[in-house]
Amino acid sequence: MIMNKFKYQMVIQWSEEDNCFLVGFPDFPGQQWRTHGTTYEEAVTQGIEVLESLVMAYEISGEPLPKPSIVCTVV
């Protein structure tokens, strides 16, 4: 599965205006929101599918994948 190979942030945010959860990938340039879901679970599922499609599109085009952001937490 692609999630084991690449570690990209997936941002999921509720939108009152759209009445759904919006999904974005900050590490990938372009539009802020890439997909959505009416439930949080649906948004996650849609997000995984979009991430797989993004990676495939980069690989097909020969374009290098963006570096994943690293979040450091202090305990």
TrEMBL record:
This is HicB-like antitoxin of toxin-antitoxin system domain-containing protein. It comes from Gloeomargarita lithophora Alchichica-D10.
